[in-house]
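pinging the channel bc i need a second pair of eyes. not urgent but kinda urgent?? the chain im working w is below, pasted from the shared doc
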Amino acid sequence: MFRKIISHSLVYALAPQIPRVVSIALLPLLTAYLTPFDYGVSATVSAYSGIFSGIKDLGITVLLVNAFYHNKKNWKLKWRILYGYLLAWAPVLFTLCFVLLWMVVPAEAASNRLLICLLTTLPFLLFDHTILVGFRYYHIVIRKPKYIAMASIVSGFVTLSLNYYIIVILKKGYLGWMWATLGGTFVSFLFYIYPVIKLKLKPIFYLNVDYFKRNMRVSLPMIPHTYSAYLLNASDRMVMDVLKVNINKIGIYNLANNFGNYFEILGNAAGMGVGPFVTDLIDKKSEDAETRLRRIIFAFQVLFLAGTFLAALWMKEIFSLLISNPELQTGYWMAIIIVMGYVYRPMYWGCVNRLLYFGKTSRLWRISFIGGALSLIANFIFIPIWGFEVAVYSTYIALLYVGFSGYFLTDYRQVARKNYYPLRWLVVIISATIVVFVLKDVFWGVKVAATVGTVAALIISLKILLKKHE
């Protein structure tokens, strides 16, 4: 089973990253045609459109998953009803986002206001609901990670090609990202509409109020939880815009934060691979399954810790190699701290997947939403005092809060079967962050030695965990 988990996780995590790896390789070329202003406009628009990310699916994702696991005979009927809810919600979501963007598009980009609003909001109206249903079918019903990976790779290369053409050839700056995102989303839609048509998952607009309320009692508590991604990843740029931080500084911070986003995407993809197997082991309700589950979580935690440490260790050299604009290169130190914040993901799986399985969604906001809200409040208070760089530290602290606070919830303790030692892992992660930050500017020979030591520690740790697993 462990090998199967690893293989699925690698497919989810690595295959979709192929276009991203190519896009990183193209950064020296792309950044020659981009400025901090372009990054700043893109960051601002993304920050405000991201406000709607938490309500995009009304928390219905958890209903799709639970409908399959808890009622495998009639799951299609419930999925069709849930699909109807999503389609009915889409025009409302589109309108709300469009109106907000119309009001907040930066004055420097006012000439493109209508185009920016349409490019950003059309996926809400036309594509996202179908992508969600089709993706979950391949993810949890028939478990075809290779199909999901293929969809990600193809849509990723379409996005990348459009980025190159519009930014480098047409020289349209930030608009290149927006056109490319719309094009890539359309390609994803084409992949995921297939099972909807094949299985005749036509939406049902079921108007029973009591049935709707019962579903929303489970799904709506997921909205604050889902909002954590926005609060942690984009709200800081919204705060900077509100506080009138120079748009070029926002752009520098946005580029640094993008490197953290790469690890977030990697973590989410790996979580997709691990998720079904974690749920299967929890579903077994046996001592052996719980022991195997903890070893799996610990193995991934070691992998994430080593991977982020090595990336952060060489971040200065990575920026020098990939970023052509000298002004943008100055943000490398911020990327180090943000990247180290994303070490938390495997421990997060161990807690949150258990809460979701047992339907304990009403307290999830205490994990994710509070973490994001703390970051938001800290940014409003401290950026005017100490500058925009404060967002780096508030994001790091909030990420670790999201990763570990769930282990101290009463709801989690009621369903926990094994001790995951969250405080010990937290100390290890913070210590690793301090070490790598101290080493950020040292002679490259020292970094090589640290790299060798990290790889050796990783190999030894995995051998111990895998041996125990066997």
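so The chain is about 80% helix and 0% strand. and The chain has a mean pLDDT of 84. — does that match what u expected or am i reading it wrong
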